[in-house]
């Protein structure tokens, strides 16, 4: 947020450590609306969270940047609020605050102003400004245009003030794909009635080195009769982009181990009824895993670290991300200072974050600052998984289903509650030895969990 004499610019906040941009969801206010301090302005969607951005000041909205569905980089202007008694237009200091961002205001800039007093220079500047306004676009639109070799100035934008949107680019790509190819013209040697002088035979010239063809866009998938085509939600698209970026950024390696959960099961069974009466929700195995993992992270600090262009940053804080599955995506809220909490404190944090995630009540701070992530697909019966790292963390651990199996103990067959652990690591920072030692420490912590341990 920054202020000018006539207005306060509201910027896209950083909604997570690895988040560089946010997508505008639903605008809750319009140009000309009077807002009170802390009143919600707009919903912003990332792959981590959907958050309402509140007004930091009271005043009148004089400019809005971007349509719903547009992507704005972190720090980019979202809107401008005038704190004065009258609404200002987006000019003067406010226009300077907006910089290169396109502005939505009433009325939209669709026609040029008439030339007055022969001021041709001003008219030309106005036309240039409107042309720049027309071709401005969000980062994702510029990337799409670059990938498909599209000149933004050639696109008639359908957004506010003629802004080029993602839909405009995709429509242009589709139009080019279905455009008929220009027929190749056969080249015939020129004819002449005059005699030609004899030609001198030249030695053969080596052909030029083959050029690599530019990367072609992914062809559209063929749609068959009866298929249902659904536009992915903003969250789903953000998750797809983030997961692809994570795999492309960090070489993933996954290590598996199984743990005998007999000790943990015994402790949980002894306390689960009293816990449910006192807390109002069930005691699961997940808080036990969080407790053991935080202790192992202290022993192996590189697993609680970040790879940063040739250097390793070991995090002092132990903040555990908890993967929460939603109907249309996945959110990873964070338990801060998890190593300082007892088992009940962890259980309360997990329950609170999961409840608020499923009711869309998480704040930006709830999904920021994780140092290690735990996933729990075992609640749905999963036995093995290969989780993808939440960037820029170095590892993620999945807790699979607890299943009674026959195992060999001291040369005898016994039935024990067993659980598989799946650890994916960033191989730039961690090797198999470090990953195996860490996972072995987690396994040992679960298998030696004190049977008489108090949970409070």
């Amino acid at each position: 947020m920054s202020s000018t004499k006539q207005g306060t610019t509201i910027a896209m906040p950083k909604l997570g450590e690895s988040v560089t941009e946010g997508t505008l969801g639903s605008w809750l206010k319009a140009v000309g609306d009077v807002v009170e301090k802390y009143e919600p302005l707009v919903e912003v969607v990332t792959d981590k969270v959907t958050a309402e951005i509140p007004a930091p000041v009271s005043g009148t909205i004089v400019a809005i940047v971007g349509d719903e569905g547009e992507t704005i980089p972190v720090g980019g202007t979202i809107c401008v609020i005038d704190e004065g008694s009258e609404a200002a237009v987006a000019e003067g200091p406010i226009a300077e605050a907006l910089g290169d961002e396109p502005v939505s205001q009433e009325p939209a800039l669709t026609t040029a102003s008439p030339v007055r007093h022969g001021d041709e220079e001003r008219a030309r500047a106005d036309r240039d400004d409107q042309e720049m306004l027309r071709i401005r676009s969000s980062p994702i639109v510029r990337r799409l245009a670059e990938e498909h070799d599209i000149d933004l100035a050639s696109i008639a934008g359908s957004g506010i003030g003629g802004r080029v949107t993602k839909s405009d680019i995709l429509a242009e790509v589709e139009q080019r794909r279905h455009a008929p190819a220009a027929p190749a013209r056969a080249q015939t040697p020129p004819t002449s009635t005059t005699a030609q002088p004899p030609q001198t035979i030249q030695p053969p010239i080596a052909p030029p080195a083959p050029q690599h063809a530019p990367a072609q866009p992914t062809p559209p998938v063929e749609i068959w009769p009866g298929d249902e085509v659904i536009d992915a939600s903003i969250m789903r698209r953000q998750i797809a982009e983030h997961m692809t970026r994570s795999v492309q950024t960090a070489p993933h390696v996954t290590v598996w181990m199984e743990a005998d959960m007999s000790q943990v099961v015994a402790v949980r069974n002894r306390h689960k009824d009293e816990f449910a009466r006192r807390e109002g929700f069930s005691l699961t195995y997940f808080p036990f895993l969080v407790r053991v993992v935080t202790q192992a992270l202290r022993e192996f600090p590189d697993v609680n670290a970040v790879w940063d262009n040739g250097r390793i940053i070991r995090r002092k804080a132990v903040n555990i991300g908890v993967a929460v599955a939603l109907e249309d995506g996945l959110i990873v809220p964070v338990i801060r200072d998890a190593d300082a909490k007892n088992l009940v404190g962890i259980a309360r944090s997990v329950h609170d974050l999961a409840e608020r995630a499923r009711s869309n009540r998480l704040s930006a701070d709830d999904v920021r600052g994780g140092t290690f992530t735990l996933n729990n697909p075992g609640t749905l019966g999963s036995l093995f998984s290969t989780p993808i790292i939440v960037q820029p963390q170095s590892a993620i651990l999945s807790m699979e289903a607890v299943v009674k199996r026959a195992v060999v103990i001291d040369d005898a067959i016994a039935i024990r509650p067993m659980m598989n652990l799946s650890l994916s690591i960033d191989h730039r920072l961690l090797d198999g030895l470090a990953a195996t030692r860490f996972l072995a420490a987690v396994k040992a912590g679960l298998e030696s969990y004190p049977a008489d341990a108090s949970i409070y």
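The chain has three domains: 2-106, 139-177, 252-447. Residues 262-279 form the longest helix (18 residues).
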